Amino acid sequence: MVDKLPNEILHEILRYIEEDTKTLFSLLLVNRLWCENSVLTLWKNPFKLENNYKILLPLLSCYYNKNNKEEPDIKYLKELNLINRSTFNYPSFIKQLEIRNMLSMIFTLAENFNLNNSSIIQIIWNMIINNSKIETLTINTKNSISSRDLHWPLKTFKSFFKITETKICFSIMKKLTFKLNLPDLSILSDLIECTNGRIKEIELEISNSKSNITYPNLDNVINLIKSQKKLEKFTYKDLSRNLSIQPIITELKDHSCTMKILNFEQRCDIDVDDLFSNLKIFYNIQELSFRNFTFEGNHELLTNIKFSQLKSLSLDGITSRNQRYLAYISEPIINLIQNHSDNLEHLNIKMTDVIMKDTFKTISLCCSNLQSFSCSTSDQNDMTFIYSIFKNNPHLTSIDLCIIFPIRNSFLTKFANEIPNTINYIAIGYSILRKENIKTFLQGLNCKKLKSFKFNWQNQKNVNISEIVKNVTKDKDWGNRCTFEECELGLANYQHTCIFKWE
Asked: Which interval of the chain is the signal sequence (predicted)?
């Protein structure tokens, strides 16, 4: 029966597993219909993994077979033992283009077969722009691809963006994602003519670099925003601390009717009056996020702000200039939450300069539709109100608590028992857990289907954390497989961040 599914249903199935490359490859063998649809999905974003240079070979095969194989500029491709006939027109399937990863693959291929970088880049680019309609473009200049040339992507593609075929290829593009060093912001202006004013989503991350730029040009960001007609999502993360966010927010006002998602992250001061005076006209905003800002000025404006469509609110790492008057800060924040409590589905409150007990109490009383909840607490007495939030939100599936007080097993037992059985995702931040803490917490959980658990772990001699978690949860019926997905080095050499997943 599975091999006779209608094409529309098959498309829907593959949409849910498009990130599962292993499964998609196995589906190639079912029949021709499954093969064709799986190839479409696999080739939607062929450059998402930079270490797989073999993905370039089908593209080179298409080029090689369409041209005179004896021409000097392609004769050298014979060394790659390319297939004589391509089953599909692979470049026509490409919808997402990650330039840095593509270049990394090309450099690896050229190095392995002693080929010319520039020639391969030109061939691959021509195959894409003459066959594809790119919907998502990602440019990352943060990390060097080649030790010989830090800015390969910028220098190479500035000229490519001026080609007519590139503009046609990019004419329906909907999303731009950038991770740029400060000097590379000029690439934004180079792309304006290619976007055709149709971009819906812009994600921009700006990093520090070894640059002598004292007054960076913000016009590149402003002009990119100005050139678009109907932006719906804007994510801005500035790690350079050299740009002012206020002119960007002012320019975004021209998209206030269409904007649905705004995310800002920057370690700087921002005037609350100016900020929310501009934002209050964004009537259709559904997601609003601020991270690492210091709020200054009159906080009272927050009391009167209401976005009728807001479903997600995040105030993460926010501090205030008015630290002496916690009540003065707390009341406007509480009112802001109350104003949106009916529609809020995702709430993240990690602030150090508000009275958290009062904030948690308000959330527990007025919010009943939360699906995810994140917070930080430095007082164990706050947990009474946090547990009330759990109980009063029956649709809650994800919790993320940054616990800034000493954790004992007795606390973890109580915490585990209070977590609703509907929870699928749990994260415990800041505190470092040890072997007995992990065992106590996992044993006490009553979750029906836990999918992910994230925590900070302190290495202990002769302790295998993966085996401990698997043994404790083997009878929990959370899935047939428990995977230790990630272990990142934390702030110190003895600390790791661990993520376990069940499927």
From this structure: none
CB-CB contact of 386 with 375 (8 Å) = yes
**SS3 assignment for 368-418:** CCCCEEEEEECCHHHHHHHHHHHHCCCCCCEEEEEECCCCCHHHHHHHHHH
Q: Token pair of 45, please?
A: 């974003």
pLDDT over 90 at 266, yes or no: yes
User: Which of 103, 155, 107 lies closest to 128, judged by CA?
Assistant: 103
The DSSP bridge partners found for residue 180 are 206
Tell me how far the alpha carbon of residue 465 is from its chain's centroid: 27
Within 10 A of 197 (CB to CB), how many other CB atoms are there?
Answer: 10
d(CA 123, CA 133): 17
Beta bridge partners of 497: 456, 488
Residue 149 above 60 pLDDT?
A: no
In Å, how far are 307, 334, 376, 399 from 348, measured between CA atoms?
17, 13, 9, 10
Beta pairing partners, 270: 295
d(CA 495, CA 484): 16
CB 113 within 8 A of CB 79: yes
* pLDDT for res 3: 58
Number of H helices, E strands in the chain: 19, 17
Distance CA 266, CA 247 (A): 14
- Cβ–Cβ under 8 Å, residues 218 and 247: yes
CA 325, CA 329: separation in Å to the nearest integer? 7
Closest CA to 59 of 126, 115, 111: 126
What is d(CA 203, CA 174) in angstroms, rounded to the nearest whole number? 12
What tokens does 291 get? Answer: 């991270």
C-alpha to C-alpha distance for 97 and 46, rounded to whole angstroms: 8
Most confident of 39-48, 127-136, 297-306, 451-460: 127-136
pLDDT tens profile 411-436: 999 999 999 999 999 999 989 899 99
Give the single-character DSSP code of 79.
Answer: G
User: Which residues are CB-contacts of 355 (< 8 A; sequence separation ≥ 6)?
Assistant: 326, 327, 330
- How do beta strands 495-502 and 452-458 pair? antiparallel
Q: Which amino acid is at 162?
A: K
Quote the CA–CA distance of 454 and 497 in Å, as a whole number: 7
* 251 vs 117 pLDDT, higher one: 251
E strand or H helix at 22: helix 21-27
How far is the C-alpha of 179 from the C-alpha of 205, rounded, in Å?
A: 5
